[in-house]
Amino acid sequence: MSELTKKVLDELTTAMDKAVIHTENEFSKIRAGKAMPAMVDSLHAEMYGAEMLLTALASITAPDARTILITPFDKTSIHAIEKAIVEANIGLNPQNDGVVVRITIPPLTEERRKLLVKNVKAEGESGKIAIRNLRKDANERAKKLKADNVSEDDIKDCEAKIQVITDKHIDKVDQMLISKEKEIMTV
């Protein structure tokens, strides 16, 4: 195998790993009835004249399975944090006691669980589409290596390895999808 085909495969693996990580991050934002800091840590609040991530304004924890606790670093930001959660329209109702913001996560109904599973499947499909697009790009790059005097056999071998790498990454997304679906449907 030539250095050029190895480079194509290495870059493909790195890009597909990033696609899997992105999909995993998207899955973590979908709540499964359990309180998770990831549900709110990517929200932005207006504070100090700028949009800031909640993680920059407060400590976010989940002390139990039904509560998210947001402890602001600066007590004056508590109303901005509360407003950001309400405006995000993610179905959470924050309550502030002047010191911390508490969010109680209601148990999911069967209908809501099915809707969340549908969202998870859509995210999983988006991840798989991204992986397939990376495969297509890598195959095109491999074909262009003919101009760099790479043999037909090396190109065919590279294309076969591209498919193996693709299958491996799609399997990872499928496993994450099965796991997240199971997590959501568990009462």
Notable traits:
about 190 residues; alpha+beta; Gyrase A, domain 2; 4-stranded antiparallel β-sheet; two-stranded antiparallel sheet; 6 strands
With helices defined by DSSP (H or I, 4 residues minimum), what is the helix count? 5
CATH H-level superfamily title of the largest domain:
Ribosome-recycling factor
Number of strands: 6
Strand content is 5-15%
Question: Biggest β-sheet, characterized?
Answer: 4 strands, antiparallel
Percent of residues in helices: 55-70%
Instruction: Compute the number of structural domains.
Output: 2
Q: What would you note in describing this structure?
A:
With 187 residues, this protein is an alpha+beta fold. The chain folds into two domains: 3-29 and 109-185, Topoisomerase I, Chain A, domain 4, CATH 1.10.132; 37-104, Gyrase A, domain 2, CATH 3.30.1360.40. It contains five helices and six strands. It has helices at 3-28, 54-57, 78-87, 110-144, 152-185; strands at 44-47, 50-53, 58-64, 67-72, 94-96, 101-104. The strands form two sheets. It has a four-stranded antiparallel beta sheet with strand order 3-4-6-5. Helix 4 (110-144) packs antiparallel against helix 5. It is elongated, with a radius of gyration of 22 Å. The termini are far apart.
